[in-house]
Structure formats: structure tokens, C-alpha cells
User: Which sequence fits this backbone?
């Protein structure tokens, strides 16, 4: 591990801790809502994960503005995207969807709280995300105009033309039928769209120009796709202990993946190529402090979990 | 039927038609999303109903501003609340929730498209609602500041502290256990909260003061509760043909209702009392053209379907 790697790992760890502290306030323990509902929401929100999407919100804000202050203004939006990501996992795990009993080594939401409450907890987290963006505007540092653009983007990237659309397309896919273009559609929408939202929402708060937003959206789209292909690769080759989940689950569930369609080696090359293209777009965005975003892109290819 | 009644009926019919035309544009037939998902969203959105919530958005905007122009600016928000109402019906009908096969005489969403697609269509409609509010701001007539307040209100009234919270509390209720205070909590959140949102969002667009918003919220809270109690009464005493659904379903499903808890006659008196209190609040709001809102309040008590 060289110095740059060590530095990015501690940056990610510190950012994750800051986000988890903010999430605890975003859904406070004494919130006046039915107790089971609140507990069910918190259970999945507390279940950990890399917090990659909220980290990208904070990092993009700081990269554009060049000052740490931007990241503080962006925190409610960082919490919002984690609420969206968490709701999508709760609904994806439902018996009618992927029917998963475990996620990150813990029982899935519906295994603990029942299906009905899991559906409602997902609905409530999705709705709650949209209450956090006006909060960013009220706290200052984010104008009403920027806040309403972020609301519009979130609804676009998380909705039928974005993440939910990717999930709907994924449900219809099957081995021997799905083509590479369809798999790219699924990955771009299921995964990349929330990454694009995270990077561009943070950049908007940092004061990005339209030209910068465009390059950053390209950057995010490519690292989102690389991230998902790397996930497919790790499912085949990874270490179960490090991953915190079973490997070969895609094969067992007959899922269509990049390694299945184009082979393992070509998938690895594609991840490297996408990462290079992402870093080029990042250069063109001409940010004040692009270093952390670049390190995150490198980290995503190098990771083993 | 007297002249006032006839006039409110044609007003409601014309408003419903305008809203249904706008809804067709809100989710266009050529929208580039997975076809099954789009069809599933449209299926439930097209299933009819009184469109009471969106009508209240338009009517409140016009009542405050005193001009029809306000209603046009408010149309995207009217469509948004109908998307929220529709998603809540799709998710409520799921096998894990109320397990209903029919709604308004048509098969429920999951009976036609399957459970997984019904969950996703609900998620997509909920998310889509939040894309329509920024659209109102872009189309003009609604400032970014007002739009972001409306986003915040929608997330509040539709979320864990609002409609979803009411639904969660309802799931835990049962005959012989639920008390009148709990039933009031359920009705206020499951039903009144979206009515409060509709009236206050329209009023914000019409340019309401904080004092007017406060009285209008009281008005809406009371007519929302009266509406729900009237629903409970009609389930016991109504005409199945007019209602378009089976009566006595609450009794068959052992649901806790106002007539069950306090009797039919006292429930009727409560509806009348709430309606009077609503009309008082409406007077105190001191609007330019309050007549239609008052007629809607009267209609809700007098209706037989």
C-alpha cells in the first residue's frame, strides 16, 4: 500500500463516520412516528455499507469549491442519497423481488419486521430523502434555485427513467436472452444513475458551471458502470470474508453479468478502460481540487470488497 | 338537487377532466422507460376515482388568488398529489398489505402486472411526484422558494410522520384493541394529511399569507377527517352500484371504524360537526373567492358514493 492509497483509505473512513453521525440526526431516535416504522427505517440505514454515494456528494462539493465548507452544506443531500440507496435495497430484497434473507451479514428488513413494514419503511425512506434537500436550503449555503434543481435531478435519476427503470429492466433479463446493450442499460440505470446524481448534486452545491456539471456527469456515469462490473467480477473471484457476502451468487441465481457475457479478463479490461475515461472527463471538468475524486475512481478499480 | 349542488357537480366534473388530461401528459405514452413499468404506472393512474386531492390543489390556488390563472400554475402540483395517492393505493393493495384483488371495479395493479412490478410502479409514481413540483417552477408562476416549500410539505405529509405513518399505525390496529384516539391518528395521517397538503400547496401557489395557510390547514384537516368518517359510514349504509365497491367490507375484514367505535348516528353527527368547524376556519382564512372550497366541504358530507 503506497502513501496515496493509505490517504484515500483514511479519507473514506473519516467521511463514512461523519456521514453516519449525520444520518443518526436525519432520523432521530425520538422522531414522533410509529415506533416500528422508525425502527425498521433505522435498522437498514444503520446496516453499514461503504456509504460511497454520500461520500461522492461531499467530495464533489469540496472538489468544485476547493473548500471544506461546501461539504458541510452538502451533508443533508448526502444523507438524502443514502436514504434512497437504502430504500432501494429494502425493496429489492423483498420476497416478490430478489427474495434475499441476508444483506451485509444481517437479516434483511422484511425478515426482521415483516413484508408490510419493509414496504412502508422503503416508502418512508424514499419520501424522507426529499425532505432533506429543502433542509439543506433552510440551513444555508444552498439557494432555493439549486435545491429545486437537485430535487428535480433526484426524482429523475432515482425514478422510472433512472434507478427504478433499471430495476424493472433487470427483472425481465435472463441468461441466454439478455444482450450486452441491455445489461449496460440495467447497470447504467440501477447503479450509475445514483452515482451521477451524487457527483452532480455535490458539484451544484459547490458552485459548478454547466460545463463542469456535464464533464462530472460523464465521470460519474463511467465510474458507476466500472463499480458495477467490478461487483460482478468480485462475485466470481472475491473473498467471502472480505466481501461480507457469499460469492458465486450471480451464477447460482442465473444472473446475467459482464463476466458471463464477455468473460472475466475482458471485464477487467473494461473496468480499467472506463476508469481511464472517467479520469479524462475529470481533467476536462477543470476543478479546483480534483484529487480526491480521482483517488476514489482508482480505489473503485483496486478494491477487493 | 338545488342550483348550488348542480353547479358544484359540474365544477367537479370539469376539474376532473382537466386533471385527467394533464395526468396523460405527466406520464406520456412515449416516455422512454421500460414499457411494462410505464404501463403499470398508467394503469393505476388511469383507474379513475374522484381526483379530490388534485381538485383541492387547483381550487385552493384560485380561492386565494381570486383568478383562474393560479389554477393553471398549480396543475403540475395537482398531478403530483394524484401520483402520491395512486402509489399509496398500489402498495396498500399488495398481498403483504390489504391483499385486495379489485379497486374501483378493476383488478388491482399486482393482479395485472405481478407483485414486483406493482412495488416498482408505486416507487416510480412516488418519485415522479417530486419531479413535477420543479416542473411547476420551470413553467413559471411558482417561484423556486415556493416550490421548495411545497417539496418539503409533500415529503412531510406523505412520509413517516404523515400518510405512511398512518398506514403503519393502521396495520397494527385491531377490533377490541384500537381506541378512538388511535383511530383518529390513523385517519388524520392516512387521509387528512394529503388533503392538508393539497389545500396548502395550492394556497401557497395562489400567494397565501402564513395566517391564511394556518386556517386553511385547519379547514383541510377537518374535511379530511370528515371525508374518511363518511367513507366508513358509506361502507355500512351505501349503495354498492353507486360506490363501485362492495359494502360491509370493513365489517368482513374486522376493521376498526368510527361507526364501530361510536355508532352510526354519532358518526354522522361528527361528520356534520367537523364540516361546520371546517367552514368556520375557511371564513377566518378570509380568501378572495372561498365559495368553491365551501361547496366542496358541503359535497363531502352530502355525497352517497
Assistant:
Amino acid at each position: 500500500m503506497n502513501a496515496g492509497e493509505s490517504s484515500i483509505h483514511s479519507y473514506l473512513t473519516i467521511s463514512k463516520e461523519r456521514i453516519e453521525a449525520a444520518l443518526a440526526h436525519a432520523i432521530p431516535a425520538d422522531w414522533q412516528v410509529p415506533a416500528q416504522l422508525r425502527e425498521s427505517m433505522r435498522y437498514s440505514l444503520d446496516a453499514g455499507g461503504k456509504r460511497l454515494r454520500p461520500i461522492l456528494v461531499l467530495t464533489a462539493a469540496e472538489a468544485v469549491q476547493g473548500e471544506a465548507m461546501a461539504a458541510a452544506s452538502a451533508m443533508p443531500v448526502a444523507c438524502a442519497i443514502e436514504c434512497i440507496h437504502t430504500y432501494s435495497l429494502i425493496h429489492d430484497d423483498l420476497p416478490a423481488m430478489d427474495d434475499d434473507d441476508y444483506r451485509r451479514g444481517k437479516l434483511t428488513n422484511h425478515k426482521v419486521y415483516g413484508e408490510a413494514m419493509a414496504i412502508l419503511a422503503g416508502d418512508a425512506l424514499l419520501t424522507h430523502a426529499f425532505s432533506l434537500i429543502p433542509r439543506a436550503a433552510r440551513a444555508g449555503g444552498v439557494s432555493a434555485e439549486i435545491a429545486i434543481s437537485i430535487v428535480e435531478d433526484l426524482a429523475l435519476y432515482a425514478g422510472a427513467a433512472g434507478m427504478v427503470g433499471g430495476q424493472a429492466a433487470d427483472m425481465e433479463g435472463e441468461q441466454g436472452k439478455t444482450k450486452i446493450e441491455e445489461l449496460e442499460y440495467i447497470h447504467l440505470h440501477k447503479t450509475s444513475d445514483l452515482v451521477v446524481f451524487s457527483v452532480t448534486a455535490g458539484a451544484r452545491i459547490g458552485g459548478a458551471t454547466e460545463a463542469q456539471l456535464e464533464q462530472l456527469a460523464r465521470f460519474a456515469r463511467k465510474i458507476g458502470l466500472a463499480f458495477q462490473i467490478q461487483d460482478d467480477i468480485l462475485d466470481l473471484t472475491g473473498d467471502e470474508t472480505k466481501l461480507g457476502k457469499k460469492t458465486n451468487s450471480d451464477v447460482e441465481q442465473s444472473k446475467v453479468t459482464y463476466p458471463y457475457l464477455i468473460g472475466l479478463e475482458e471485464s477487467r479490461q473494461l473496468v480499467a478502460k472506463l476508469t481511464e475515461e472517467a479520469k479524462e472527463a475529470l481533467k476536462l471538468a477543470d476543478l479546483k481540487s480534483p484529487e480526491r475524486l480521482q483517488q476514489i475512481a482508482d480505489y473503485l478499480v483496486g478494491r477487493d470488497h
User: Anything to note?
Assistant: Chain B has one domain: 3-302. The radius of gyration of chain B is 19 Å. The beta strands of chain B are 102-103, 106-107. DSSP finds 15 helices and two strands in chain B.
